Amino acid sequence: MPIREKFEDDLNKLQNRLLELGEFTNHALARAMEALETQNVELALEIMDDDTKADILEEEINDISIWLIAKQQPVAIDLRRIIAAIKIATDVERIADFAVNIAKSTIRIGTDPHVQPLDNIKQMHSIMMEMLRLSLEAFNEDDIEKAKQVADMDDQVDDLYGQTIRSFLSMNQSNPELLPQVTQLSFVCRFLERAADHCTNIAESVYYLVKGRRYDLNS
Amino acid sequence: MAKTMETSQSQTERQTNGTGSNEKNIVYKTKELNLWYGDNQALKNINLEIIENEVTAIIGPSGCGKSTYIKTLNRMIELIPGVRTAGEISYRGRNILDKSYEVEELRTKVGMVFQKPNPFPKSIYENVVYGPRIHGIRDKKILNEIAEKSLRGAAIWDEVKDRLNQNAYGLSGGQQQRLCIARCLAIEPDVILMDEPTSALDPISTLKVEELMQELKKSYSIIIVTHNMQQAARISDKTAFFLNGEVVEFTKTTKMFSKPDDQRTEDYITGRFG
User: Fold this and answer.
1) Residue A142: which residues within 8 A CB-CB, separation 6 or more?
2) Which SUPFAM superfamilies match (chain A) (predicted)?
3) Do B230 and A151 touch (CB under 8 A)?
4) In chain A, which residues have their Cβ closer than 8 Å to the Cβ of B9?
C-alpha cells in the first residue's frame, strides 16, 4: 500500500479528469468537422451549446490542482505532474474552443455550396486529431517518444496550412464573389493550425513532466 | 523537422548547477568520513563541501546519520562513548579530527542550536553574555553592546529589551529558541549548526526562525538538520539527502525539489518511503 494513498487517489482523479476533457474535445472536433462537411447548421449549434462542459472540466482540473498544492505540498515529479495538468487543461480547453469556432464558421457558410472540396482541411483535421490523441496518451504514459511524434506532426499541419491559404488567396483574386466563404474556410484552416500548436504545447508539458526542464518544440 | 531545443533558462540553470565553490569560500570539507558507534557504522564515506554564507540543509529518514554528521562538525560526537571515526573534516583548511585541534577553539567558531530551546536558568541578559564572559570579557559596557547586538541579530530585541533581567524561562518556546540563537551569536561564530531547531516550535515561531536564518546567512554559514522537507525547500541553498549513513544526493535545493537525480531521493521527498 502506498504511504500517501489519498494523495495518489487525488492525482489519479486529476489525470482522469484531464483525459475526460481530452475525450470531450476530441468528440467536439469530430462533430465540428462533420458539421462543416455536411453543412449541418443544427449540429453546429449543438456543438456551441455543449462547450460549457469543457469550461467546467477545466475549472474542476484547476480546483483539484490548487487544492492538491495547498494540501499536499507536492515536490519533484508530483509537482511537475500537477503543473503539467494545469497547463495541458488550458491547452485542451482552448482546442475545444476551436471546435466552437469551426461550428460558427459552418453557420456563417450556411448552405452555399463549397467553393472547393475540403480535402486539405480534412487532412489537417485528421492529423490534428491524431496529435491530440497522441499528446494526451504521452501525458498519461509519461512517454516523451509520443510527445516527440506530436511535435514532428505539427510540421505537416503547418505545411498544409501554408498550401491551403495560398490557394484561397489566389481564388479570392480571381473570384471576389467567393470572398465570404473563402474567408470562413481560411479561418477554419487557422483554427486547425492553432489547435495543432496547442497539441505541441501539450507535448512540451510532457517533456517538462518527464525531464524536469522546459523545451521549445514549436521552433 | 521539429527541434527539441531547450530554452536558454534551463541551460543557465544547468550551468550554475555545480557547487560554485573555490578553496576560499569552503567552510567545511568532509573527505571519506566514516563513523562507527561500536560495531555499527553510522556514516559511510561522506564527502561534502559546505560553502560560506549559504544555508545547507540535511534531510533524511530517522536513523540515516544526519544528526550524527552535524555533531561531528563541532566534535560533539566525541561525548558519546565508543565512537570511532576515520577520514577527514577540514574546517577552514584544518582537519578538526586531528588530535592537535583544540575543541574549545573549534566551538568558539562553530555555534549550535538544538531541537529543544535550552536557555540557562538565568536572566535573558545573562544567557546572552555568558559566552563572552567565559571568554574573558568583563567590561560591562562591552557586554551590554554584545547583548543588544546579539538579541537584535536574533530578531528578539524588541520583545525582550524591557525585561532583560527576567528569567529566560518566562519566555515562550519560540522566544527561547531565538534567545538561544542570540546566545550563539554573542560569541561571533563563523558557522551555526542547527539540529531540528524548529521542531518544538509553533508555526509562527517557526516562520520567525526561518526568516531569521535568511538574515543570518548574510554573515554566517548555516547547516541545518530538518525533518521538515518543505522547510528545507524554503530556507536552504543546498540540500544533502542522507540514507543509511550515506549521502545519496547533494545538490542545489531548487534541483533537489524539482528534479532530483536519484530515484531514492525522489521517492523520499515525494513521501513514497520513509
Assistant:
1) A206, A209, A210
2) PhoU-like
3) no
4) 214
